[in-house]
Amino acid sequence: MSDLPASTNDLVAPMPVLPVAVLNRLARERLEAVFPLCWVAGEVSNLSHASSGHVYFSLKDSAAQVRCVMFRNRAQLLGWRLENGQNIEARVLVTLYEARGDFQLNVEAARRAGVGHLYEQFLRLKDKLAREGLFDSSAKRLLPAFPRCIGIVTSPQAAALRDVLSTLRRRAGQVGIVIYPTPVQGDGAAAQIAAAICCAGEHRECDVLIVCRGGGSIEDLWAFNDEAVARAMRACPLPVISGIGHETDFTIADFAADQRAPTPTAAAELAAPEQVALLARLAAYRLALRRLIDQHLNQRGQHLDWLAHRLQSPSQYLARHQDNLYKLQRRLRAGLLQANAQARATLLGLTRHLLLIRPDPVRQAGHLEALAARLRSAWQTTAQARHADLELLSAGLSHLHPAAVLARGYCVVSNAQGQIIRASKALEPGQQIAVFFHRGRAEAVVLNVSEEDGIAFAAPAIASAASPE
């Protein structure tokens, strides 16, 4: 019984105790992990712009609301100002503000409600026309440098028209203007804009066409995102400039036009060169041309003076050349005389040299006979010396001949195999040997062998049989 727990509380495992900060952090991490970035639609309320640049507001619908925050770095990229009552679509991160434990949405981007659908339509149409080659830069036409007439497709009540007209009046008052009125907003505006562009292309009253409109929301500019307008621009035989909205606004018409201007005023500046600048350039060209003409005339005048200085009468020309001819004749005559004298002196020198080196037959014959006598005497002396050397060599050779050695009393001993015996130790008693003398040979048998040096003149201890060979 002592092993039982004292109370039922001891049967439950102890639970960890979490601080509030840890609990909120775990909840935030779980929310951010479970909910990816998503789009949330609602109405803006309780909007507050903080001095730090952050924007705080609530998104609500008929059943609920949620707190939202848009940090400064995101709010600066929005491009328009949030206001209470606006219906928007926000791209958000679902999270928890740990300091207060408030459930909130961190807004990454926002757009007006319905804009997302329109933007998707814009992208699909842009991609389609781009694949067809409607936006290729190679198909773009150059704007005329000096247009005589400019066409404008826009609404007569639009402020953009007044900006374009004032800019053209200021820059190029001499250029004619034709207005093709058309609504630029609302139902059917796209078809009427396309018809106005086609009308301008058919009449060809102008050198360049401006399609313009002032700024506005994407819904206000939607007429210029129509496929019919883009195709009308590309089919128009006139170069087309688009000046639609503000610098940050881009429409399908901007991509289809030959030249895009950020504003209607910039479109007018692109269409017509500034008259003051043209007059200044013309004055500069006139001054440069005048300088070139003056410089050319001065150079030609100087060349004319030089030619006049060189020009002289034919009699003077002939007299001068006749004097030159006389001088050349005198120089030629003096040159010929000098050349003849030099050649004559050279010939005399060669003659004397030839006489000096001409051979004397009598003297040369005596010299030849003296050389022949010297040759004969030298030959006889050399022959006698060579004959004496030959006799001396012959006597030495005869003295060294084996027959001469045998004649002096020596003999040659060989064994039965014909090998010459040079030492007594090569013999054995009873061995047959042959002894060769100056005249004849003898066969002998060795009786005794001694290895003493020197020649013994006692009777030989061999038995021999003389042979007349």
Structural descriptors:
elongated, Rossmann fold, OB fold (Dihydrolipoamide Acetyltransferase, E2P), five-stranded mixed β-barrel, single chain, 4 domains, 14 strands, alpha/beta, five-stranded parallel beta sheet, disordered N terminus, 469 residues, 20% strand
Q: Report the helical percentage.
A: 40-55%
Separate helix tally: 12
Determine Rg (CA atoms, Å).
68 Å
Question: Mind summarizing the main beta sheet?
Answer: 5 strands, mixed, barrel
**How widely separated are the two ends?**
156 Å
* Oligomeric state of shown chains: single chain
Average pLDDT level:
85
In total, the number of domains comes to 4
What is the 3D form?
elongated
Q: Spatial order of the strands in the main sheet?
A: 1-2-3-5-4
What does this protein look like?
With 469 residues, the protein is α/β, with parallel strands linked by helices. The chain folds into four domains: 20-113, Nucleic acid-binding proteins (OB fold (Dihydrolipoamide Acetyltransferase, E2P)), CATH 2.40.50.140; 122-136 and 145-273, 3-Layer(aba) Sandwich (Rossmann fold); 278-306; 405-467, no CATH class. Helices cover 45% and strands 20% of the residues. The chain has twelve helices and 14 strands. The protein has helices at residues 20-34, 72-75, 115-131, 159-171, 189-203, 227-235, 252-256, 264-271, 275-310, 314-357, 361-399, 402-407, and strands at residues 38-49, 55-60, 65-70, 87-97, 102-112, 149-154, 176-181, 208-213, 240-244, 259-260, 412-415, 432-436, 441-446, 462-467. The strands form three sheets. It has a five-stranded mixed beta barrel. A five-stranded parallel sheet has the order 7-6-8-9-10. Strands 11-12-13-14 form a four-stranded antiparallel sheet, with no helix packed on it. A hairpin with a 4-residue loop joins strand 4 and strand 5. Helix 4 packs parallel to helix 8 and helix 5 (189-203) runs parallel beside helix 6. The N and C termini lie far apart (156 Å). 17% of the residues are buried.
